Amino acid sequence: MNAIVLLSFFFAVCGLFSSIHSRNFTSRPAVVNIGAIFSFETTIGRVAKIAIEEAVKDVNANSSILRGSKLVVSMHSSNCSGFTGMVEALRFMETDAVAIIGPQSSVVAHIISQVVNELRVPLLSFAATDPTLDSLQFPFFVRTTRSDLYQMAAIAEIVDYYGWKQVIAIFIDDDNGRNGILALSDKLAERRSKISYKVGIPPDSGVTRGDIMDILVKVALMEPRVVVLHVNPKLGFSIFSVAKYLGMMSNGYVWIATDWLSSYLDSSSPLPSETMNIMQGVLALRQYTPDSDRKRSFSSRWSNLTGGSLGLNSYGLYAYDSVWLVAHAIDAFFEQGGVISFSNDSRLRSEGGDLHLDAMSIFDDGLLLLKNVLRSDLVGLTGPLKFDSDRSLILPAYDVINVIGTGYRQIGYWSNYSGLSTVPPETFYMRPPNRSSANQQLYSVIWPGETVLKPRGWVFPNNGKQLRIGVPIRVSFKEFVTKVQGTDMFKGFCIDVFTAAVSLLPYAVPYQFIPFGNGKENPSYTELVNLITTGFFDAVVGDIAIVTNRTKIVDYTQPFVASGLVVVAPFRKLNSGAWAFLLPFSPLMWIVTACFFIGVGTVVWILEHRINDEFRGPPKRQIITILWFSLSTLFFAHRENTVSTLGRFVLIIWLFVVLIINSSYTASLTSILTVQQLFSPISGIDSLKESDEPIGYQVGSFAEYYLSQELGISKSRLVPLGSPEAYARALELGPKKGGVAAVVDELPYVELFLSTQCTFRIVGQEFTKSGWGFAFPRDSPLAIDMSTAILALSENGDLQRIHDKWLMHSGCSSDSTELESDRLQLKSFSGLFLICGLACFLALFIYFLQIIRQLYSAPTVEAASPLQGSSRSGRLHRLLSLMDEKEDQSRQKNKRRKVERSLSENDGDAKSGSNTKRKGIEMTSGNHLNHVISHDHGQ
After folding, report:
1. Is residue 743 within 8 Å of residue 568, measured between CB atoms?
2. Mean pLDDT (the chain, rounded)
3. Could you tell me the pTM of the whole model?
4. Would you say 149 and 106 are in contact if contact means Cβ atoms under 8 Å apart?
């Protein structure tokens, strides 16, 4: 009985596993319905229809996918209408479609996405490129093509590559057009470029040729010449036709079309010659699809299908891949146990009428199918079909083409990985990303007007409008800029530079000078520059300093004058007097030098005192010896010989220091006594800042801001001065009589002031570096062209000739003398004194180590004495005694040996027949030697 139960249980378990194993096959329906919505009448729609049909055939013919199930696609045309698209999407829900391919239009995609969100059906669009469709608002929308976000990034990089700063955007004013141009604006802003003018065209078909002409006439009157065209083919060709008629397809213009043009060219080539003639030189983008055997095979198959009447474009390839993407996702859905089932929504109940909303149903496992779509990882005709975290296909890239002749020419590629290049993007995928400007490359382009020269991208519009150029009315230094009395004209150095630069521009620039200021005092240049930002002035011309706070709001041209702040102070001539010999050194230098003389003498005395008789004797004599020895080294006339090694080490370094000091003193004193010196109590901006004396500055100059804000000088010390005469008067009075100690102003003004004022000089160095330039609004192309013109003036010598005409005159006699150079300061010799001090310290350290070693190694006979004991005072007394006593035991022995050796040599030289007198001398010498030796031992 138990055996029967076990056997029954075994068969039950096997049956369970068998049913689980076969579930994936039994749950697969015979037919899987999907829908497709797009516009059959458009170029993209005609291509997509054939591509989808062929993809369905290939999927159903492949036994490795959708095993046992047949994919059925129902296609409906939306006619690019949002309402029609929504109705057709609802009709699909009545047939239990598990996914929808399409739509082609971004406008329709926005509407249908609301429907599929409610019914939980994935919507895979192969042509809706609006960037905002990627938002979280549309979770069931999946884009199987490239977003316009990447296309606009490519256009922005092309604009930046050619150095253009402003573009004009013409677009269809619908969801796709508006949002695409917004993305372009953001991408241009990242590269400091911008859309200067945007014009939207109504999306309906009621736009006439006259409407287009009105739009393009406005565009022609604007400064930028780079036009981005984001429209549909019908409208795009109408715009090109009108532009050709208005002469806007000629030299100087740049036209960049989005991928609508390349799709049309791929599908409709060859176009009539008159159509190609109206868009010669246009740049366009095309979605990049890598070359592969599958792609070439499908292209050949396509030609057979269409007979060459309809070309294959990139959207057709993406439509084909979308079907395969859905098929693989459905197959994975079945593998995971998914079941195609639908539930009625209680919110969709019809209360009469023919809408039959209650027939609508929700796909129960729609979220699971969506996840499988987003997890796809396969390779299609367009390349890898894999989504990133932003639900976008990985590795976006575009072809860059140039329309020329009867077709187009590819000039390069753009990819989000490597930027612009002349080789296919996949070449860079195995390398680290490198977006440096040196790696950005494109082949040469034939631009509108059949020229290979890169258009400037900007011209001055010929619409009769004159530039309003602000010019300061100066009341001082009128050589730079001044108004001609009784007229609206200006003259001066800055005006001549401006007019000469304008004459070099390759286009006419109508302008009028607008005076700024009350004519009683120099105006504020900061206020003048700020009026550019308000639009009151189109530019500012004059002696405008390029300073940091102004460069934040305007653009400057290339500086035409080097400038910077300097200090001007009065001076007086110095005559050599009775105390002129003290001038070469500063007081601190004298004090430190004297201290080192005494210090080195003391160190040498310490090192020589125990072993050198010349440094011994009574205290008074030793002090005199120290002073005499140290001072005599100044003239290298010291008579005392050094015996110790340490003493000689210190002395040789000190003599080198003395040599340098002596040479420097001699050179400086010679200059003082032979050259007329100029002296000013102010040595530069540092000494002026540390003092509390008043400082003058020019009214309207940025010097006030710099002195108060940057250097922290109190405004109470700053005195405004309005003219060169006020400069001279304030400097002559001085701070004690109501004047100023110095004047701080820009170098060009100061040089002009000093050309007629001979009692003042520039003291110190120029403490800011800047220049003068003409100011224009931010990102103004005219500023760039004027900078090029100013550089040309500098190179051909005209700038110098204008300078000499206005500024080269001087009433002062030529005087090569300059303000007194700084005295020789201690810092100039600090290194020498440091080396000497270290040498003295090292010698003393070694000396005291030797003394301490002798102190501890010598026999302490006195230690037994009850008077001294072993106290610290006893050791100190012993140390001082050891340092003071003469070291003579070993040295006296050596001395005695020398004397005896000398006498023995004399005895050997004497003859045996010497007279009694010579013997007496020898006896006397011997007795004298014994007396000396015994006397030394007595000491």
Report:
1. yes
2. 82
3. 0.67
4. no
